[in-house]
From TrEMBL, chain A:
Protein name as it appears in the record: Amino acid ABC transporter substrate-binding protein
Signal peptide: 1-22
Annotated ranges, domain Solute-binding protein family 3/N-terminal: 37-266
Record flagged with keyword Signal: yes
GO BP: any one term: amino acid transport
Cited InterPro entries: Bact_solute-bind_prot3 (IPR051455), Solute-binding_3/MltF_N (IPR001638)
Database matches in Pfam families: SBP_bac_3
Family: Belongs to the bacterial solute-binding protein 3 family.
Superkingdom of the source species: Bacteria
Keywords from the named record: Signal, Transport
From TrEMBL, chain B:
GO cellular component terms attached to this protein's record: ATP-binding cassette (ABC) transporter complex
Compartment(s) of residence: Cell inner membrane; Cell membrane
GO term, biological process aspect, one: amino acid transport
Annotated protein name in UniProt: ABC transporter permease subunit
Residue stretches in coiled coil: none
């Protein structure tokens, strides 16, 4: 009996050491293929970006990234385990290997990229921090906000931006840090804070759910750049490339006019050399990534190109009603741009 | 002649460590201890190695970097340009503030309710039962959020105080404003202030001590000590002569006169809160987050303490009450002189755990936006720097230190009041 226990203990110790070594030696791409499932970190729920729908299925533009990557790597957009993360747990989950990819409206900042050792692979939504106030307050500009009480989420880039913006403009404010969106909204609507500050997209989305959205306005000042995008662990360039170019493929598809509807006909008949390279009918881009030749085609087939994903989840025809704005293609005056597939 | 034959001394052999019952239990314990330390060492080594593979060697350097975020409730000076260490310190003071307030009110509530639940008055006893069961059986977090919601939803916003015919007005001669952002009360100001002295100057733990406050506390302490001395002197005279000299007409001025003259010398006046721009300014702002957390912690823990008090009282034999009554003591005095002192022996040990619970439960503060240690160090600092291992270790150490400190102090008090057995 004692013998057995010792054996089991020794074996499990060996196994644990073995696993720890395997994780550091093998690349994430191989691990995902081996596992047959992508572990994707998302928010605990921001409608339009990532939230489960009535059937419990995750939807949103962040979710679309996960699905596209799963389709490109595993040829199955459902082979994903979604791991809901909070602002507090998101980075630990990624660093520890609990998730392969974090697609969770997370702002690309210097310290997260450099000090926290992550790689941001691109931007899927260009946002900026703004202020929402009641119209009856009679405020026309953020510079008139001296002495206000501001509700915002604790532990985000927003708090740093607020402190910096008010200091630079030599005015003062009282912060009310809140733990989640629902609490913040309640405080703001009850008048416990004069201003609600968050990413403009979030403010607009929340305002649409108010009883009287017309009583509230977004001030013209956008006080920060909040490029939101997916990120992976630092030091695994092959995996970073897979995620980066899957995102780029969705953007390039919109640029090249490839949609979920015409995907098959374009694949069969297009003479455009870049489309042919993108969809894998020409060249060996997929092979270079360690994937199959039709990886990008599979990614696009899930929910269409970037524009289609935007329109279906947060666009003007959805309850969230976000205009494309900065998130339009570069050819139409926006910032969305993919490096060439060449 | 008989010679006592001592048992032959067997030479010690290594196998005896396992087969000899005299050694076996020790062998097993030592082996287990070594195994435990090996496991612990492997865990730590594994963590450090894995973190350095990620390029994130454990380091506490971030504590000296600029925090960048503001904290609304602060007992010491703090700006967004101060360090993360100072932010953690501000949070720690906020934790201690709500813990001290909570322990105090929870004890008062607990003792009163615990005694009242044993009342012969049917209605009072039942009401106390409802309160106790209500608070004990619903999670604390819900109470905190619920009380916050009541404060925020029912009280008027500062804008309601504005205009010619405002919907809400300040009370107590326009000196106290009750709004859904908190209560604004007058603050003490001194026109001839003695100033402050700073301790730990130049470090990130620097803080100012108001000399006015020190002077007031010193004078108050001295005069109360003098009045007490007068009281004990009166006791002594009463014991020897049977006549108690009247002391109140000396005691009251003895306490009042020095403090009043000190306040006058310092130029004491009240700073009233007034509506300015979007908010009230001036005065002291007691935030709703603090009120909600304090109330919820006190009411919740008070319910537990009430049960402990009830158990303590019920542990005292009824004969004690009867004996005291036979001596002619009135019920109130029976409780305070006979029952309670004995009940304390039973009450204090579980009371210690409830004080520790208040400290630990105060970490739910962020639910209402109160920035305690969990909100600053283990909340925002963790998020801004990404140093989860270091901040959590540090946070755990601090909570451990506070809890052990309270435990130590209370155990000392317990020994003090314990029944001395002869």
């Amino acid at each position: 009996m004692r013998r057995n226990i010792e054996k089991i203990a020794a074996l499990s110790l060996l196994a644990a050491v073995g696993i720890a070594q395997a994780a550091s030696a093998e690349g994430t791409l191989d691990l995902v293929k081996e596992r047959g499932k992508l572990m994707c970190g998302v928010t605990t729920g921001v409608v339009g970006f990532a939230a489960p729908d009535a059937n419990g299925e995750w939807r949103g533009i962040d979710v679309a990234i996960c699905r596209a990557v799963a389709a490109a790597v595993l040829n199955d957009p459902q082979a994903i385990e979604f791991v809901p993360t909070t602002p507090k747990t998101r980075f630990t989950a990624l660093a520890s290997g609990e998730i392969d990819l974090l697609a969770r409206n997370t702002t690309w900042t210097f310290s997260r990229d450099v000090d926290l050792k992550f790689d941001f692979v691109g931007v899927n939504y260009y946002d900026g921090q703004g202020f929402m106030v009641r119209k009856e307050l009679g405020v026309k500009s953020a510079t008139e906000l001296d002495g206000v009480t501001i509700c915002s989420l604790a532990g985000t880039t927003h708090e740093l931006n607020l402190a910096e913006y008010f200091r630079v403009n030599d005015i003062d404010f009282e912060p009310v840090p809140m733990d989640n969106n629902a609490e913040t909204q309640q405080q703001y609507l009850a008048g416990a804070c004069d201003v609600y500050s968050a990413d403009v997209s979030a403010l607009v989305a929340q305002r649409s759910s108010f009883a009287n959205p017309k009583e509230h306005m977004i001030l013209p000042e956008i006080i920060s750049k909040e490029p939101l995008g997916p990120l992976v662990r630092h030091g695994d360039s092959e995996w970073a490339d897979v995620v980066r170019w899957t995102l780029n493929a969705l953007v390039a598809a919109e640029e090249l006019g490839v949609t979920s509807e015409n995907l098959d006909t374009v694949t069969a008949s297009s003479e455009n050399p870049e489309i042919k390279r993108l969809l894998g009918t020409d060249g060996n881009l997929g092979e270079q990534l360690g994937l199959e030749s039709d990886w990008a085609k599979r990614a696009i087939a899930v929910a269409g190109n970037y524009g289609e994903i935007f329109a279906a989840n947060i666009g003007e025809d959805t309850p969230i009603e976000l205009a494309r704005g900065l998130n339009d293609l570069w050819t139409r005056g926006g910032l969305i741009y993919s490096p060439p597939f060449r | 002649m008989t010679t006592s034959m001592s048992a032959p001394q067997k030479p010690f052999r290594l196998s005896m460590l396992i087969y000899d019952t005299r050694y076996r239990s020790k062998t097993i314990q030592i082996a287990a201890l070594i195994g435990f330390f090996c496991g612990l060492g492997w865990l730590i080594d594994n963590t450090v190695t894995n973190l350095s593979v990620l390029g994130k060697e454990p380091s506490f350097r971030f504590l000296t970097e600029e925090a960048g975020y503001k904290i609304n409730q602060k007992l010491i000076e703090y700006t967004a340009q101060d360090t993360h260490l100072r932010a953690a310190f501000v949070g720690l003071l906020n934790t201690l503030l709500v813990a001290v307030l909570g322990c105090f009110t929870a004890t008062v509530i607990g003792v009163v309710v615990g005694v009242l639940r044993l009342s012969k008055n049917w209605l009072i006893a039942r009401l106390m039962t409802i309160y106790i069961e209500g608070f004990r059986n619903v999670p604390l977090l819900l109470w905190i959020v619920f009380i916050m919601a009541i404060l925020v939803e029912t009280l008027p916003a500062p804008s309601a105080f504005r205009g010619d015919s405002p919907a809400a007005s300040m009370i107590l001669g326009d000196s106290v404003a009750i709004s859904n952002r908190g209560i604004y009360v007058p603050e003490a100001l001194f026109s001839r202030s003695l100033g402050d002295i700073s301790l730990f100057e130049g470090t990130s733990l620097q803080f100012e001590v108001s000399l006015d406050l020190v002077a007031i506390l010193a004078v108050l302490g001295l005069s109360i000590w003098a009045a007490k001395w007068l009281g004990t002197r009166a006791d002594r005279i009463q014991e020897t002569t049977g006549k108690r000299p009247t002391t109140w007409y000396i005691q009251i001025p003895l306490i009042a006169a020095p403090i009043l003259s000190l306040l006058f010398t310092l130029g004491f006046h009240l700073g009233l809160p007034e509506l300015k721009g979007f908010n009230f300014s001036g005065g002291t702002h007691i935030r709703n987050s603090l009120l909600a957390l304090w109330l919820a912690l006190s009411l919740y823990t008070g319910a537990f303490i009430a049960e402990i008090v009830r158990a303590g009282i019920m542990a005292i034999d009824h004969g004690q009450t009867e004996a005291a009554a036979a001596l002619g003591l009135r019920p109130k005095r029976i409780m305070s002189l006979v029952i309670m002192p004995q009940a304390l022996r039973v009450i204090i040990p579980p009371l210690i755990s409830n004080y520790l619970n208040i400290i630990k439960n105060s970490s739910l503060a962020i639910a209402v936006g109160y920035l305690d240690l969990t909100g600053t160090l283990i909340g925002i600092t963790l998020n801004q720097t990404g140093r989860e291992l270091e901040t959590l270790l540090l946070g755990m150490m601090v909570y451990l230190t506070i809890s052990l400190g309270i435990s130590f102090a209370m155990n000392w008090y317990n020994k003090h009041v314990k029944l001395v057995e002869r």
